[in-house]
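Quick one, tokens below:
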């Protein structure tokens, strides 16, 4: 007799067995919820309870990019007026030859030179006017350290030669840096420094650098160098403290494993001085012991190519009656390595792609013995090895932020022992294909200084997935008013609209918002039947207080279920209440 039959076969053996036989279907649903809790991700407000977490937009629109002082353009490249050749003699010029020009071709510069060629004869004043016109052509297009000179020459061939000196940045000095190493800052700035130097491009790169929250201010001063066309850049930086320590409490876990949890998040945003970041997150509840996530990311190229690593593990035990007596436990761990490459980055737009490899292992036990709560697992264990390809687009202004995120995931069988179960109809399989998409829009309105926050998410797959790859519907970051992970399905569509209206404000960091919202979620399974309900919807309101102490924050939401879901035994979440308080030490 197999283990399932042994546990459920004789209803008279024990009260536990009888109870299990009656509630077996509900029990499997509870454990599916437990398995779906992402390995350390769903406990922090990452934006969505989807594995892996989709990057979260800021809670308010990004401010307009910091406008740096105008870069001081050295006067030397404009060249003082050249010494007249032999006034007032005229010279015959049938053509003009340009040397040293790489930014603009001779054809492009003909709009400047052709009128002078057509004159046929030029005075020394005409030649000086031509030189200044070529210099102005460069300066007007941002090449303020470039210019033209007229070298000594013999005009017997009636060809006038003009030398273009394209400006070069020969030195970058950094002052007042403490956390960042000087080579890293130079590395980032040199991307926009040519050659040749375009002060508009350079200024935009400096503004992009200042958008990094690890800098609070950057002052730039561009000065002439020793040689013609050379310039030196002096940077004075003010850095933010890279340490972050947050202690918090919320009820964002599933009541199955104890909804109320405490958590600690420690982060260093610049460990070695080269922009690498390390964060450690730990959380625990009555049934979570503990949840741990470790992230490390390091830039490996001046184009902001970033290599990232993640380790996650959790151990959960069911604490909700009547299933707490069954000693149900679940343990999982996962590893992830990823590479992210921006393709376009400006003050308004950012386009990036990423590729991530991930391996996850999950094991479940019942009464201390391995047990398969998910069809497709073997001896209570399933493994997933997946490759994920992501695309991101971000548009920001001083009044709004728009983001589109897309991710394709492919699960591979027979890779690092991944679980395959194609021979069993309706079983989950480690071989799968899924697409996850998200759109977010944050808009600052003039009406009552309201912030409008909207989000839409969808996952589509033709395959029946293991719980770690499924979508959870219900809870703070999907459909408020329902308990966390109320529904767990292969496919889902989620939508949310929230208006944050400030009702009290004493300082930038001391603001109290009231936040009415409406949430919607629809989900269904692939390859197997979908039980009802398929749709959850709610309306409600919240209170958000940006506490005037670092990045501390309190929020309380109440959601009213529009279609009643009869599960739960009186947890705060079952009454539509979601709350969190976060205290920041740095």
């Amino acid at each position: 007799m197999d283990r399932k039959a042994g546990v459920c076969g004789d209803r008279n053996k024990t009260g536990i067995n009888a109870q299990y036989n009656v509630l077996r279907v509900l029990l499997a649903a509870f454990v599916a919820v437990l398995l779906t809790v992402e390995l350390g991700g769903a406990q922090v407000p990452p934006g969505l309870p989807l594995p892996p977490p989709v990057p979260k937009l800021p809670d308010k629109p990004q401010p307009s990019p910091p406008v740096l002082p105008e870069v001081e353009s050295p006067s030397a490249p404009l060249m003082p007026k050249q010494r007249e050749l032999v006034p007032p003699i005229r010279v015959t010029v049938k053509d003009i030859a340009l040397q040293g020009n790489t930014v603009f071709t001779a054809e492009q510069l003909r709009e400047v030179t052709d009128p002078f060629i057509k004159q046929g004869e030029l005075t020394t004043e005409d030649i000086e006017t031509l030189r200044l016109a070529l210099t102005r052509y460069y300066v007007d297009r941002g090449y303020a350290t470039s210019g033209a000179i007229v070298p000594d020459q013999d005009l017997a061939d009636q060809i006038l030669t003009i030398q273009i000196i394209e400006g070069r940045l020969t030195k970058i000095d950094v002052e007042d840096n403490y956390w960042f190493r000087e080579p890293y800052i130079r590395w980032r700035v040199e991307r926009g420094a040519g050659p040749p130097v375009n002060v508009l491009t350079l200024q935009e790169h400096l503004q992009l650098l200042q958008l990094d929250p690890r800098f609070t201010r950057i002052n730039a001063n561009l000065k002439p160098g020793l040689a013609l066309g050379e310039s030196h850049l002096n940077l004075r930086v003010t850095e933010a403290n890279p340490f972050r320590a947050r202690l918090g409490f919320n009820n964002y876990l599933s009541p199955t494993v104890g909804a109320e949890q405490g958590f600690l998040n420690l982060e260093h945003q610049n460990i070695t001085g080269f922009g690498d970041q390390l964060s450690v997150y730990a959380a625990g509840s009555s049934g979570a012991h503990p949840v741990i996530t470790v992230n490390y990311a390091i830039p490996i190229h001046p184009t902001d190519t970033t290599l990232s690593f993640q380790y996650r593990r959790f151990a959960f035990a069911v604490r909700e009656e009547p299933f707490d007596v069954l000693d149900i436990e679940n343990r999982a761990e996962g590893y992830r390595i990823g590479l992210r490459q921006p393709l376009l980055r400006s003050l308004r737009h950012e386009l990036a792609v990423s590729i991530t490899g991930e391996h996850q292992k999950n094991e479940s036990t019942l009464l201390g013995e391995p047990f398969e709560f998910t069809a497709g697992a073997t001896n209570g264990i399933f493994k997933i090895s997946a490759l994920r390809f992501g695309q991101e687009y971000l548009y920001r202004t001083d009044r709004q932020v728009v983001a589109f995120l897309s991710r394709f995931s492919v699960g591979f069988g027979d890779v690092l022992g991944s679980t395959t179960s194609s021979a069993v109809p309706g079983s989950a399989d480690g071989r799968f294909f899924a697409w996850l998409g998200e759109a977010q829009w944050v808009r600052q309105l003039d009406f009552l200084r309201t912030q409008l926050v909207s989000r839409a998410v969808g996952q589509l797959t033709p395959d029946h997935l293991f719980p770690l790859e499924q979508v959870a519907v219900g809870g703070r970051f999907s459909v408020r008013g329902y308990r966390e992970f109320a529904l767990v399905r292969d496919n889902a569509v989620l939508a949310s609209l929230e208006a944050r209206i400030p009702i009290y404000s004493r300082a930038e960091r001391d603001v109290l918002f009231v936040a009415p919202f409406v949430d919607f979620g629809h989900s269904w399974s692939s390859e197997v039947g979908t039980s009802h309900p398929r749709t959850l919807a709610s309306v409600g309101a919240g209170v958000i207080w940006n506490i005037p102490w670092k990045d501390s924050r309190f929020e309380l939401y109440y959601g009213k279920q529009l279609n009643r879901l009869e599960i739960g035994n009186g947890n705060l979440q079952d009454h539509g209440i979601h709350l969190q308080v976060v205290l920041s030490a740095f």
